[in-house]
Each structure stands twice: as structure tokens, then as C-alpha cells.
Write a structure and sequence with these properties.
The complex is a heterodimer of chains A (168) and B (169).
Chain A lengths: L3 H15 L8 H36 L10 H13 L10 H11 L2 H12 L19 H9 L6 H4 L5 H4 L1
Chain B lengths: L2 H26 L2 H15 L3 H4 L4 H13 L2 H9 L18 H12 L3 H12 L4 H8 L3 H18 L3 H7 L1
Helix pairs in contact in B: 1-2, 1-4, 1-7, 2-4, 7-9, 8-9
The chains are: A mainly alpha (168), B mainly alpha (169).
Chain lengths: 168, 169
């Protein structure tokens, strides 16, 4: 059921189609266009990737490092690591058992942390026992401060030993 | 693309170029625009030739051509070239009857928007159903119906005395 207008449209379109100009050899220009399209696509993709990297790099550098949580434990753990070196001369007078027990037996994680932090704070940290300058005049204290160096456990029990010495 | 593929592509293009150019000419209404449209569609088909050669390359090429005709980018470029086209259409005198009707209809078809003209070409030149037109254009059947209705209404507006002319046909 086609209306006269639709018939007219069909007739006109058929007439127009017959008037289409004859063209030849459309393949070569089409291939040239395809090459240009591919080249443009690749160039735009590369430019977009470079732009994304350039934009994202400052943000990635400025963002806080995830290593921040590991930083707090390191000072605590580094303190026991320092005295470990010092007490060796006192091992003769004092029973080596507490030193060995404090460094290894009491808290296993401490040696691990000290080894990791030891690399980060090579020589400066071992002098951390200077945080208790009171004990510096008494040579025995550094050796006993090994357990004291671990503040959460029992810092004070290690100090009692220096006290008797000045009194006596 | 190896030699065999390229030979098949060249054969396909040589065989189907006249028919495709007719469709492109109907879609654009201009010789140079038709060439440009056909080359653009062919340039998009060539990279996919390996996968299309055993399927339906002509259907793909037609679909690309129809999509290209109604694309937004092409509409922008066409707007820039509007001043260059249109003046090259010399009206050929036709001794056959109803010349004025066809000339008026031809001018009216050229004034339709690309999307409406594409629907008319698919429906009345390619004789596709509304479902097939919707598949080719990637739109819904309702869109095809509305575009067809708007195109016919626009033609009636542009040809107010078409009813009288139809009687003379």
C-alpha cells in the first residue's frame, strides 16, 4: 500500500541513482585514507598516553608513601638493637643469661625489627642509650639497660641496679 | 594484508563500486561528496577486510556508509563545505513527462536532513523493511518510523502542490 507520494519518491530516487557519476580506481585513495587513519590513531594514542603519564607523575610522587606505618616501630625496635652491641664487655661480670634472653627470648620480633632498622640507622642509633645520660657515668648501666631499652616491658627494673651503686 | 587478500579486495571494489556510488550519490546528492563518502567507508572497511572477506563485506560497507552519512563529525565538515556544493548541479532538461515534478522532488530531497534522507533511501530505494533499516542504522524501529514520517511530512511541506502534480503523473 504505497501512496502516490511514495511512488514519486521511488521514481525520483531511481532517476537520481542512474545519474550517479562513474568513478574508477577508488581503492588506492581509500588505502591512503586508511593509512592516514591508522597513523593518526596511533599518534593520538601515544600523545594521550604521554599526557596521562605526565599528569599523573607529580601526583604519584607527591602522594604519601605507604612505608609510613613501618616507620614508628623502627625507633622503638632500634633502641634495643643498639645496646646489644654495647653489653658485650659486661657479659663477664653479669650473667649473660638476661642479655641473651632479653635480646632473643623475650620478644622475637625485636631482633627482626632491629636488623631491619639497623640498616636504616647505621651508627647514630646505637648511641640512643644516651637518652638516659644518667646512666652514662655508671658503666654498668648500659649493659643492664638492655631490658630497660625496651620501654613497654620494664624500663624501670633495669635502673634499680645503678641506684644501689651510687648509694653504696 | 597479503597479495591474495589484496587481489580479492581489488576485485570486490571494482565490482561493487558502481552500485555503492549510486547509493552514495543518493545519500549526498553531490558527486564529490559521494566520492568522499564512499572512500571514507572503504577506508574503514579495509582494515577489517581479513575478517570480512568470508562474511558480508558489502553489507558492512553499506552500513559504514550509512553511519558515516549521519555521523556528527561529517555533519560538521559538511556545514563548512556548504558554500562549495550545490552550485555544481546543473539541471539537465528532460524531455520525458513530469519533469517539473521530478525536479521539484529532487530539490526537496536535497533539502532534507541527512538522517531523514538516509531513511528514505533505505526504505524506498533499497526496499528494506523498517526492521532492516533499524538494524543497518543501529537505532530502534520507532526511530525509523518517526524519521520516515518526518521526512515525508517535510516533502509535503516543500512540495505543497505535489498532489496536483501527482495527478498529472
Amino acid at each position: 500500500m504505497s501512496t502516490p507520494l511514495e511512488d514519486l519518491i521511488r521514481t525520483t530516487l531511481s532517476d537520481l541513482a542512474e545519474e550517479a557519476p562513474p568513478v574508477q580506481n577508488q581503492l588506492i585513495p581509500a588505502e591512503r585514507r586508511a593509512r592516514n587513519r591508522r597513523r593518526t590513531t596511533m599518534a593520538l594514542g601515544t600523545a594521550g598516553t604521554i599526557a596521562a603519564v605526565l599528569i599523573a607523575a607529580p601526583f604519584a610522587i607527591a602522594s604519601p608513601r605507604p612505608a609510613a606505618p613501618s616507620a614508628p616501630p623502627s625507633p622503638v625496635a632500634s633502641i634495643p638493637s643498639g645496646p646489644e652491641v654495647v653489653p658485650s664487655p659486661w657479659e663477664g661480670s653479669r650473667p649473660p643469661a638476661p642479655v641473651a634472653s632479653s635480646s632473643t627470648g623475650d620478644r622475637p620480633p625485636a631482633p627482626v625489627a632491629s636488623s631491619s632498622s639497623g640498616g636504616r640507622l647505621p651508627a647514630g642509633r646505637p648511641t640512643m642509650p644516651a637518652a638516659s645520660p644518667d646512666a652514662v657515668p655508671v658503666p654498668a648501666s648500659p649493659g643492664l639497660r638492655m631490658p630497660a631499652a625496651s620501654p613497654p616491658v620494664a624500663p624501670s627494673p633495669a635502673l634499680p641496679s645503678p641506684r644501689p651503686s651510687p648509694q653504696g | 594484508m597479503d597479495e591474495d587478500d589484496r587481489a580479492r579486495l581489488a576485485e570486490f571494489v571494482a565490482n561493487r563500486t558502481p552500485a555503492m556510488m549510486r547509493v552514495a550519490y543518493l545519500l549526498t546528492g553531490d558527486r564529490y561528496a559521494a566520492e568522499d563518502l564512499f572512500q571514507s567507508a572503504l577506508a574503514k572497511t579495509i582494515p577489517k577486510w581479513r575478517t570480512l572477506r568470508h562474511a558480508d563485506p558489502e553489507g558492512y560497507l553499506r552500513a559504514v556508509m550509512y553511519g558515516e552519512q549521519v555521523s556528527w563529525w561529517r555533519r560538521l565538515r559538511r556545514r563548512r563545505e556548504t558554500t562549495l556544493t550545490g552550485a555544481d548541479e546543473a539541471v539537465q532538461p528532460d524531455p520525458s513527462a513530469g519533469i517539473e515534478v521530478r525536479l521539484a522532488m529532487r530539490a526537496a530531497l536535497r533539502r532534507l536532513p541527512p538522517a531523514q534522507r538516509t531513511v528514505l533511501v533505505l526504505r524506498y530505494y533499497e526496499d528494506l523493511t523498517e526492521t532492516q533499516v533499524a538494524d543497518v542504522l543501529g537505532c530502534s524501529i520507532g526511530t525509523v518510523r518517526s524519521r520516515t514520517h518526518r521526512a515525508v511530512s517535510r516533502l509535503r511541506q516543500l512540495l505543497p502542490d505535489v498532489e496536483l502534480l501527482e495527478v498529472r503523473l
